[in-house]
């Protein structure tokens, strides 16, 4: 009975996390299968380990091994890594728990709630992070910052110069900025001399 309750609680939690929080916000279909597969797989393995003499130590080792897995064929952003770890944590809490009591259910709810709040679109919604390639070799950081603020239409909070190519006259920068209150979608103001490499 306890096992069935744990499985049911895990299925409800991962369904809310994946179909109620992640996909409506980010619309990345491939990671839906990844989150579900990782969660159910960890739940099954943790359930077997929890019922044997190996105990929770090996289960924590499993968490450590799985935590270093990265999909080399495609980049996973930081918020997606958070969902990935949440799926792992939910499977382990449900699978390794001796009893599915209020504490375990509360911890599972806390994991889901952390992603609901931490990844909410309204949280710091004007703060942007972009990787840009400028068609100008900027060596003056103050001039670079002023140029970025003029083009992006926001207040630059941090600039990290990744690369300056004096031969091809280009600069690769990572910029964090606060967009104007009525800002257009990220990248809408990029002119012909600026290329958006990536945005987060």
Total count of helical runs of at least 4 residues: 6
Tell me the structural class: alpha+beta
Please count the beta strands (DSSP E, at least 2 residues each). 4
Order of helices and strands: HHHHHEHEEE
The overall average pLDDT, rounded, is: 81
| Percent of residues in β-strands | 15-25%
- The residue fraction in helices comes out at 40-55%
Distance between the termini: 44 Å
Spans of at least 5 consecutive residues with low confidence:
186-194
Main sheet: strand order:
2-3-1-4
Shape: elongated
Largest β-sheet summary: 4 strands, antiparallel
Protein name: DUF4956 domain-containing protein
InterPro entries: DUF4956
Pfam families: DUF4956 (PF16316)
Organism: Actinoplanes hulinensis
Give structural notes.
By secondary structure, the protein is an alpha+beta fold. Helices cover 54% and strands 18% of the residues. It has 6 helices and 4 strands, in the order αααααβαβββ. The protein has helices spanning 2-26, 29-50, 55-67, 78-96, 102-118, 141-152; strands at residues 127-134, 154-165, 170-179, 194-199. It has a 4-stranded antiparallel sheet with strand order 2-3-1-4, covered by helices on one side. α1 (2-26) runs antiparallel to α2 and α2 (29-50) runs parallel beside α4 (78-96). The chain crosses the membrane at residues 6-24, 31-48, 54-69, 81-97, 103-124. InterPro entries: DUF4956 (IPR032531). Keywords: Membrane, Transmembrane, Transmembrane helix. It comes from Actinoplanes hulinensis. It holds the Pfam family DUF4956.
């Amino acid at each position: 009975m306890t096992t069935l309750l744990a499985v049911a609680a895990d299925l409800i939690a991962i369904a809310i996390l994946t179909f109620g929080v992640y996909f409506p916000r980010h619309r990345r279909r491939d990671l839906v299968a990844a989150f579900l597969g990782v969660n159910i797989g960890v739940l099954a393995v943790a359930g077997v380990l929890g019922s044997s003499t190996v105990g929770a130590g090996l289960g924590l080792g499993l968490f450590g091994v799985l935590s270093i897995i990265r999909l080399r064929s495609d980049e996973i952003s930081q918020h997606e890594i958070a969902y990935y770890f949440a799926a792992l944590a939910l499977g382990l809490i449900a699978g390794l728990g001796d009893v599915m009591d209020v504490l375990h259910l509360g911890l599972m709810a806390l994991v889901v709630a952390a992603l609901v709040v931490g990844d909410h679109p309204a949280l710091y919604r004007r703060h942007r992070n972009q990787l840009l390639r400028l068609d100008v070799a900027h060596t003056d950081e103050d001039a670079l910052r002023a140029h970025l603020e003029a083009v992006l239409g926001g207040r630059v909070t941090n600039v990290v110069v990744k690369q300056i190519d004096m031969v091809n006259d280009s600069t690769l920068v990572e910029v964090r900025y606060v967009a104007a209150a009525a800002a257009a979608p990220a990248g809408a103001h990029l002119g012909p001399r600026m290329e958006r490499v990536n945005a987060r």
